[in-house]
Amino acid sequence: MSANKKLLVLPGDGIGPEVMHETLRVVDWMDRTSRARFDVVQDLVGGASIEARGMPISPATVTRAKEADAVLFGSVGGPQWDKLGFDARPELSILTLRKELGLFANLRPAIVLDPLVDASTLKADVIRGLDLMIVRESTGGIYFGEPRGVETLPDGTKRGINTEVYTTPEIERVARVAFELARKRQSKLCSVEKANVMESGLLWRETVAALGAAEYPDVALSHMYADNCAMQLVRNPRQFDVIVTGNLFGDILSDLASMLTGSLGMLPSATLGAPDASGRRHALYEPIHGSAPDIAGMGLANPLAQMLSFAMLLRYSFDMHEDAQLIEQACTNVLASGLRTQDVMAPGCAKVGTSVMGEAVLRELDKLAS
Ligand code: IPM
Ligand code: MG
């Protein structure tokens, strides 16, 4: 019998623990139905870790993340920690995990499920059937570039500095992930930067173009400036299949893309490292939504993005495609049955809270599996 799969579960702050609680019931379900055995270790991260340990993520937690087969992350942050410096904020925990585990490829799907086509603020005709994937570079760019900081000038005014930096290997490895994904989809890749004003953007464009010509001639590659991409995403999002872009543009465009679908509460993400010789790679899975402090603890949060993050985990870390699909199907069916959390509420549907939604997904899983 194969060894148990090691999961590190980091619920974090705000609605994180609530939606993670429902997701762990799905993990249990996998266990109970003998689909896979998981050893689940839970730990603190973000504001919860700041309160208990005085730091957003402890070195021991980082070590546990490195030892795990996969990390399931909730969300971090909240107004009570907004005044802390960048070296102490809850957000540093996710940035540290990305950096320490070498998680450079952040996969952010934006999929419009049929039952939710009216949840979008865009016209149904524009977004029906949308299925795009943003591959965001996540260990480089302006998030980590040096020099950075705030300095005081001789006249007493201040200067804030961040630096956009990309090397060819950094660009190539994330572009490779995007090309490979495109191959498994519609074989269309759009690379996004600001090559019209930024040297690093020009290098990005040239590097992706050269890699495409040399290794992926079968993938239709296009290039787009980030501002135009934002406009095109709203104008006609279905023109895209896979988008690859740097850390900052990816942060912005993936929020935009997620809202095309009508609810941040629906979208999962995966962040992958490079595979080692045995094909094993570090990987972290988290919903795209944040910690939503305004509704934390009220039992109102949509647990589906966290559950779908677990489905992505099964798919990308363990090649368990059928089980991933089962969970995705269960979530879709529950929505189609008319149950909705407040964020995706629609006329004629029944408004439910986090645990009723979780319960419904479990019932649906039982049904699908029987
Ligand atoms: C995201 C978030 C993070 C980011 C924050 C929490 C540091 O916005 O994952 O998109 O900017 O990368
Ligand atoms: Mg973001």
What does this structure look like?
- It is a single chain.
- This protein is of the alpha/beta class and 370 residues long.
- The chain folds into two domains: 1-104 and 276-370, Isopropylmalate Dehydrogenase (3-Layer(aba) Sandwich), CATH 3.40.718; 108-272, Isopropylmalate Dehydrogenase (3-Layer(aba) Sandwich).
- Helix content is 41%, strand content 19%.
- It has helices at 16-32, 47-53, 59-67, 91-100, 124-127, 168-183, 199-215, 226-235, 247-260, 304-318, 321-336, 354-369, and strands at 5-12, 38-42, 70-75, 105-111, 131-137, 149-152, 158-161, 188-193, 220-225, 242-245, 268-272, 283-287, 339-340, 350-351.
- It has a ten-stranded mixed sheet, sandwiched between helices.
- The radius of gyration is 20 Å and the shape is globular.
- The protein starts with a strand and ends with a helix.
- Bound molecules: 3-isopropylmalic acid (IPM) and magnesium ion.
- Magnesium ion is lined by residues 251, 255.
